[in-house]
Design brief:
Layout: H1 2-25, E1 40-46, H2 58-65, E2 68-75, H3 77-90, E3 97-101, H4 121-124, H5 129-134, E4 136-137, E5 140-141, E6 144-149, E7 153-156, H6 157-160, H7 163-173, H8 183-195, H9 209-222, H10 239-253, H11 266-274, E8 280-282, H12 288-291, E9 303-306, E10 326-331, H13 339-349, H14 352-359, H15 368-377, H16 384-400, H17 410-425, H18 431-448
Parallel strand pairs: 1-2, 1-3
Antiparallel strand pairs: 3-10, 4-5, 6-10, 7-8, 7-9
Amino acid sequence: MMLRKLLPMLVMLALLSAFVVQAQDEPQYAGLDMDLSGINIRMANIGGGQYEAMYDAITVFEEATGATVEIVALLDGFAIDQKLKVDFATGAADYDVAWDHTSFVAQYTPFLLPLQDYFSEDELAPFSPAILNAATIDGNLYLIPRHADISPIHYRKDLYEDEAIAAAYMDATGEALTVPTDLEQIDRQARFFVENGHSTLGYTLAGKEEALTGRFYEMHFASGGSLFDENYQPSFNDDIGVAVAELLAGWYADGIIPSDTTSLLWDGVAQYFCNNDVAIKLEWYGWYAYFQDADSCAVAGNFGLARGFTGLSVGGDAVRPSGWAGAHAFSVPATAPNPQAGVQLIKFLSSERVAYEEALLGFLPTRGDVWDRIIADAADAENPLDRERLELARIQVGEDFKTPPLIAEWIPFSNIFYPHLQAIILGDVSAQDGLDAAAEETREMMADAGYY
């Protein structure tokens, strides 16, 4: 009799246990463990496109904590940067959470609240150490990352899977045609594809503004170089910098890259690859869905991805994988009326569950637990590249992530640098003379900024 009475209870306990296990297996929210009743949290956000989907989750935070969240700005990345600069300079940053970015944060640090005392080691453990390191300046953690981007090699599979092309490449170079792992291989292959009519272009890259500065920076550090030395003196006009600049100028002169390179930004560069006109290039992961849209892109289904290249051998043992990268993030202004409440909102927005939901839109996560989930989700994807892409991106974000120099003058420096590099690419000036001129102007800017 006793056993008969116990059986229903045991079944109920088993079901409850299964429910708890299943619930624990679901991605979890954070930041909901504090009563914030009556507090209005003001937030200045990046907006546009899929950036805004995350903010739909804020209602969950409001219902759980009793706080209200007021979005006081919703602007694109460059516009929100301008707002922050003005608000910080004038003392008008009366909000508790602000958009931020690893490439921009150095200019804001005098106006931000260090966050290391608000987050425990356990709370920070899921985030990429490389990104947290990029978010830490002078020992202070200023950012909690939201999502990241980095560039793998994109290559046309038809060129690398054609036996006749492979045989011709072996005859011409004495080496097997495989997906390249270094910049000198890319140079040889890109030239071979163009010179033998296999591809209209061998390579492409954005050729103006900060986009060009960043791609030079990437090739330079991958080849063992550094834009600045330990005393913030410009060092990009060294032998490595000259070699990179001469490579780009040679590509332009020989038609390896487009004739309108110095007019191209990201959308124009992507369009060339979309048209199936480019053999190989670095490109952001964010274009993946666009390239796989057969209605829009001729390259759909005809490209593969690989880890970024190592640089030119002139750098010797200092060469490393490319990995110019950045991460969108959240910060708390030092003048925030409700800093603790702002931190709680950041904990919520950077939590496993919210980050997972954003990753489903195609953004690269910055949390290891979210990487685990989206890779598992892609296990049975119809296109194997859907999963391979994520596994590769996780390696790059975890191991190759490298921001531009964490200086407030990154954009002013870029505005000095890229016109000189454009002149080198166009053949208007030698690589050494052009880089020397850029270095002299940069040195004057850094001196005016108080670096020496």
